[in-house]
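[09:14] KT: can someone run the structure on this one? pasting the chain below
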Amino acid sequence: MTILKPKIQLLDEEHKIKVFNEAMDILENQGIFLENKEAIKIFKQHGIDERNSRYFIPSDLVDKCLESIPNEIKLYDREGKEFLSLTKDNVHFDPGSAAIFILDEKTGEIREALSKDFIHFSKIVEQLQFIDAQSTAIVYQDVPKEAQDWHRLYLALSNCYKPVITGTFRKESFKIMRELLLACRLSEEDLARKPLAVFDACPSPPLKWSDLTTQSLIDAANSMIPSEFVSMPLAGASAPITLIGSITQHCAESLAGVVIAQLTKKGAPVIWGGSPAVLDMRRGTTPMGAIETMMINIGDVEMGKFLKLPTHAYMSLSDSKVPDAQAGFEAGMGALLAGLAGINMVSGPGMIDFESTQSIEKLLIDNEIIGMVKRFLKGIENFGAPFASNILKAYDKKQELLSHPLTLKLFKKELFLPSPIIDRLSRDAWKDSGSKSIRKRAIEQTLKLEKLSPIKPIDEILAKQLDQITSANI
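[09:31] RB: done, structure tokens below
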């Protein structure tokens, strides 16, 4: 039995109520911009006021929409087996999306990605124990732009069995992506019961739901496929400079998403997520590894939990351009804080350079970080009193505890045993093995992982179905 589950909290109940009430007031009196014709039609059908392209959402409608959202989303793997549950303080990790570059582990250079890079990436993700879901993590350039959304999902499903975090950059993509997901299920009802993918929906700060993002939210709701809000307030630029101001804006934008989804289809599953940042006033950049960015994320998630919704955040990523010490401490801090905040889905492992680049080296290092975080979250367990005195009596007899029955029984449970990526050798043994850096050890581990057989090879019939769907659309 765990004595106490480790947690962190930045907002007290009083301030959560104040943030929520102010967000409701913003929606009702300042309104949101809405571009999507289908959403505008739905809003008009429900009598939502409009002035100068702003739509003013009444508080009672927001309350009503919040009542119909599921507070748990279960995700299933490609074969339809229950894989993870997004609820309460369950913590899961997926690689961040959607990088436009990759750090080539062979040359050490950042370059545009190709489809073969994403295939390699997906196969590695399948082998990583602590990366719970995959994602369409890399936008590669060797397929036509109109095919990029669904082609990434096709390669993800073909090369990894884990649930997928994905999304659209073109409205036309959803239909084909839905067809790919349906190939993995028995029917539309089966896909709704056993969701395989989550679609990101990113409002544009401040207070705007674009045509593309809104259409994704509507399409997913109609199919009962989970949507993940990724509100992106930029403190000091497109959001208030105060952290609590950005948290309030995030809350308003996400509540608007709740209304759009629930008016489309009551009970549609949604995840309260985000990718906020602060603006670095000296460089004009958006540091995802900044401690204030992490604090906004935690505040956003606390608001999601206040509303009893599944939660998401972009954390455990770095602004460094290589997997160096900066990447390590930013990713490590982010992963641990995300775990302590109980974020249900954490996107970011593998990412560097302001969310623009994926690195397989960093992904493997992050997998070790996440393993440690998950061990920490298990807390200290009470195996029954007395805690030490009886064991110490045994030491008096043998002068060692290595062979003690309790040591043999519990050391694998009590200790996190990392892969060879983490150096725990003696100095002499480290020198004898080549004095390798963690980057070098990660690259070596990549070479070993890519030679392994798939954990769950794709069924040949399903593989042919996916091929046929893609061939018909290229």
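[09:33] KT: thanks! The longest helix spans residues 243-264.
[09:34] RB: yep, looked fine to me
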